């Protein structure tokens, strides 16, 4: 018995405390009269309605309880059992019965073909009801097949998600460590050394001796990352010598940046650049993995395992992601420049002062020529308007229209006629 049920019947229970309502309902279930504790009208209504519900419940039990008729079986046996229990009101007397068809999706897709063949051999007419333990067993087996099918789907998706989850754990652990660290100078130095080692390995990948073309290519990549051209002896032929030269040049430039910018400022910039690069490239990487999952699914037509192909490609992409994070961060750091703005500011101030002096000279020249200041405002000439019936200002005593005004009007008429 709920408040919403009584409110739907027209009772106003909006001002009742929820705690008081629950206590009164608990007393009614224990066979106690809640009106002995609560004197309000709602307690009486609650108790009366509860007694009515109890009488109705006894009538339902006398008739055998709730009888539920189902027209379809769920794909999961667990949900079927839950629905039976809920429809039977959790242990109250009642029963349930399901009416199915062999053409339902559950039996048509996952049922046994032998069952359908057996029923056809019996020669039963269309629409004849069937009831046999074999049918119940066949339905149960079909539900087991559906459950196994869905389990394989979830397992397959979990294997795909596990690949991304491992990469996510690696990235997030690094990011968390960066945030907790006060200084990541050791990280940056390690990244510089690793990048130099990669460039040297690429230069010697084809042969044990350093070719001129490979050296030029390595120096060009070095310039793209570290933003300066390294001066390396062209006669170097050993891997160790080239690696030592590149490391020394890169670390020397890094120390120069630290002196120019300041250790504290550079530490903050290092964390900012590294975190920003990780966030940006990680988002791009997730989008690439989504596209990769779709594309590798088609490789099953080529007799290849899509999951294995996805794992392999995702690993290569993750390695490339880590490489791009290092290169981008180093590229930002080695391109930092601080320009002195004092000289520029001094030049701007001098130019503005010169402009102001020129403007003052020009203003003085104008005052000399016109004899007044440029900003003086010229006052308009005001003329008093004379009405036609007013006395004429000439002193004749006549009206203006009969005296001077008459001559003025005749002159205007003549002008108009001459224009025509």
From TrEMBL:
Topology with respect to the bilayer: Peripheral membrane protein
Record-annotated SecA family profile domain positions: 1-131
Keyword terms of this UniProt record: ATP-binding, Cell membrane, Coiled coil, Cytoplasm, Membrane, Metal-binding, Nucleotide-binding, Protein transport, Translocase, Translocation, Transport, Zinc
GO cellular component: cell envelope Sec protein transport complex; cytosol; plasma membrane
Cofactor(s) listed: Zn(2+)
UniProt-annotated location(s): Membrane
GO-annotated biological processes: intracellular protein transport; protein import; protein targeting; protein transport by the Sec complex
Pfam families xrefs: P-loop_SecA, SEC-C, SecA_SW
Annotated protein name in UniProt: Preprotein translocase subunit SecA
UniProt entry tagged with the keyword Membrane: yes
Coiled-coil ranges per UniProt: 205-259, 335-365
